[in-house]
Amino acid sequence: MTLASDGRTSRAEAQRTARRQEILDAAVRVFSEHGYHTASVSDVIDAAGISRGTFYLYFDGKEPLFLELLERFILRIRDAVRVVDPDGANPTAELLENVGRVVDVVFDNRDLAVVVFRQSMGVNPEVDAKLLRLYGFLQEMVEGALINGAASGLTREVNAPIVATALIGAMKEIFYRYLVIEPVARPDRTAVAHTLLDFGLRGLLLSSDA
Amino acid sequence: MTLASDGRTSRAEAQRTARRQEILDAAVRVFSEHGYHTASVSDVIDAAGISRGTFYLYFDGKEPLFLELLERFILRIRDAVRVVDPDGANPTAELLENVGRVVDVVFDNRDLAVVVFRQSMGVNPEVDAKLLRLYGFLQEMVEGALINGAASGLTREVNAPIVATALIGAMKEIFYRYLVIEPVARPDRTAVAHTLLDFGLRGLLLSSDA
Amino acid sequence: MTLASDGRTSRAEAQRTARRQEILDAAVRVFSEHGYHTASVSDVIDAAGISRGTFYLYFDGKEPLFLELLERFILRIRDAVRVVDPDGANPTAELLENVGRVVDVVFDNRDLAVVVFRQSMGVNPEVDAKLLRLYGFLQEMVEGALINGAASGLTREVNAPIVATALIGAMKEIFYRYLVIEPVARPDRTAVAHTLLDFGLRGLLLSSDA
Amino acid sequence: MTLASDGRTSRAEAQRTARRQEILDAAVRVFSEHGYHTASVSDVIDAAGISRGTFYLYFDGKEPLFLELLERFILRIRDAVRVVDPDGANPTAELLENVGRVVDVVFDNRDLAVVVFRQSMGVNPEVDAKLLRLYGFLQEMVEGALINGAASGLTREVNAPIVATALIGAMKEIFYRYLVIEPVARPDRTAVAHTLLDFGLRGLLLSSDA
DNA sequence: CATGAATGAGTGTTCATTCAT
DNA sequence: AATGAATGAACACTCATTCAT
Fold it and tell me: Would you call D171 and C172 a contact, using CB atoms and an 8 Å cutoff?
């Protein structure tokens, strides 16, 4: 009762955590299908197979639940993206790894990703703030990579902010397409990463035209 | 009442149309500020300065109103985009014109654009269908341009669907940035068009690397 | 529509006021029977014969409704109590008039009085504040009368605050008895006033013992 | 288990009783602070430092708990009040003793008294019945004293029921004042008793006016 | 044509109570 | 005996829509 190592207590805690996760999983399914506003707490508890009261035993309400879902996704994305050292052995490979890891996170959390990509902005100020921080972070990372690339003579000098925004938008749209519009079980992460990077780096023109 | 040439009727109809437009304008303002779900019919009628009943005299409800708003935006976008003849005098200029016209539509209808970009997907199946048709159309146009470009030796051969999706996502994200995150009174349409196209066509690599 | 004297508008407003009053009346009945906490908004709307929505069209909620009820009762009581001029022609008669008017207010608003006497303190801070202000006012009035009475040689010098409190408590208990415990259709206001005053002024001892 | 003299059982029972008392004490604190309706069972178990289940092991619920609290207070008050023999040596002293003992009970059980005085009537029929029996008992005692007093030529003949009610109300209000509105650590019981009695017996008029 | 009072299904949330462990 | 996770009926409140005037 007093020690965390107490068998009975730790088992109970493990059960609690498991139950919480079940509810989170159910919520992801529900939110990804109906969207935050259209989904009701009733939908979540039905999907989770619990009673009304139990839901509020594990979460403080609909909004905190959504916020936690969002937070988890954001953390995973942030963890997937690492600063690329422009003077490293193979910066392009590192870039590809970053993109590949993001692809993994997105397709490992399909429903969650759908929720975030589709309709999160505007849900409420706190949600907006969280998302803006995520996009700000990604923007920074990509801008940094662009500036480093230019500095090390790897890429052209471009309007870094606008191009970073474009790259992020490109990724989101591609993800959305493969998640929702023409769902793919799991795309070849290296293929997606390569296409994105190839498009981003080389553009569409024939080399001779450049 | 039966003849369009009836003076009384046509004047009444003109008034009706004007009133409808006022409501639509008010709705755009309200939806862009609060989002579809958070905005209430009360917000719209308050903004339009009409009574509850009058609203339902002009629209069948909140959702049909939103659908009409969406439809209008979609039509404007579709009108702005024209097929580029790859064998024409200056296909690149035509492409730039297309992008420039889209920029114009978006910034001529800022609020409406915000609503559409931010959180339309998932509002309801009919809305989704409309949006998917729009994106399908844009996708087709861009894919066509890519294939034509490659056929006429103008651009590299690329994975047309994925690159088209990427280009559309890039545009959306840039628009969203300039509409919401760091609002710009009205960006230089040719500058935006050039940046987008330059990025899309030439990529990031230095020419020498290509 | 623009003028308050517009027949149509004023009729509508009269209807609105009437409806409001109906709801207030129903609420008084419900609160006096069940008490604030036990009574539900559903009870009120059932008693008023209106729909859920209509209730919230006229009142901002359960608490504001209760507060308004309370406020109305308090105002009536305050209006009934007037400062007694100790140098007036007949201060005792004025005192009797005061008590009589309070008796009238209480028995003209039986249910409301029951609500206030029985269980209002502790409902919530705002309610408590309102009631404390009422009792403070009554306390002041009675204390003033006691001090004036002593100054003008009419009454003995007494511990004014404690005796004022005692008098107020005595009245409340008597009211409560005749309202709830052994309800009287309408007590003889002068009899009640006289008994109270006689008891208050002369006490229980035989004159000879004084 | 069957015999009270069984050591184990009696120790267990003592523990049980002690635990019960702890819960009762916690409940008094909680109810006096928040009121019956606003206080939750959770508040009580938190204050008592026990688990949810344990609470229901000792009490059948929130209402029975409250009823028991009330019952205990009522018993103490009833024990404090004894019939005054009008032909005894010093009936006035006995009266003073009665009032003094009630003052003691009230201030020895401040929180409990606050709960009872403030908002018990109307909690539910059973509670009301209990309170009405208490007030009936007090009313009887006071009425009896009044009648005896008149019979033995000690006091004036008064409308006994109404005056008894007034006296009870006066006491309650004074208690409430000293418990809640301007709390006094512990009033001088003889002073309070004397003031009450003096006011009750002699009234406010100057002796010469009597 | 215009109004706004009326509606009621639906929402998120609370909390006294039960019961398997 | 003690626990605390689970329950679900009940609550206050919202809002898109209708319709008598």
Answer: no
Among positive and negative, which fits the CA dihedral B202, B203, B204, B209?
Answer: negative
pLDDT band at residue B209 under the 50/70/90 scheme: very low
For chain C, the straight-line distance linking the first and the last C-alpha, in angstroms and rounded, comes to 71
CATH architecture of C1-59: Orthogonal Bundle (1.10)
Domain C62-209 in CATH 1.10.357.10: yes
The answer to whether the Cβ–Cβ distance between C174 and D153 falls below 8 Å is: no
For chain D, state the CA radius of gyration. 20
Q: Band the pLDDT of D189: cuts 50, 70, 90.
A: confident
A204, B163 contact by CB (below 8 A):
yes
Q: Using only the alpha carbons of chain C, give its radius of gyration.
A: 21
* Chain B CB contacts of A123 below 8 Å: 35, 119
Q: Report the pLDDT value the prediction gives residue C125, as an integer from 0 to 100.
A: 83
Helix residue spans in D35-61 (DSSP H): 41-48, 52-58
| Average pLDDT value for residue range B60-69 | 95
Q: Show which positions of strand F are touched by protein (CB under 7 A).
A: 1-20
pLDDT at residue C112, rounded to an integer: 93
Instruction: Look at the block and give the residue holding tokens 């008992």.
Output: D137
pTM exceeds 0.70, yes or no: yes
**Which residues of chain C does D129 touch, with a Cβ-Cβ cutoff of 8 Å?**
none
Residue B206's pLDDT band, with cuts at 50, 70 and 90, is: low
2.30.29.30, 1.10.238.10, 3.30.300.20, 1.10.357.10: CATH of A61-209: 1.10.357.10
Mutation target to probe the D interface, by most D beta carbons within 10 A, among C62, C156, C171, C201 is C156
Bridge partners (DSSP) listed for residue B155: A205
**Paired strand residues for C28:** none
Secondary structure class of A155 (helix, strand, coil): strand
Average pLDDT of D182-187?
81
Q: What is the pLDDT of residue C87?
A: 82
Domain ranges for chain C: 1-59, 62-209
* Whole-Å CA distances, A167 to A172, A188, B196, D150: 9, 19, 11, 101
Is the predicted pLDDT of residue C55 greater than 90, yes or no?
A: yes
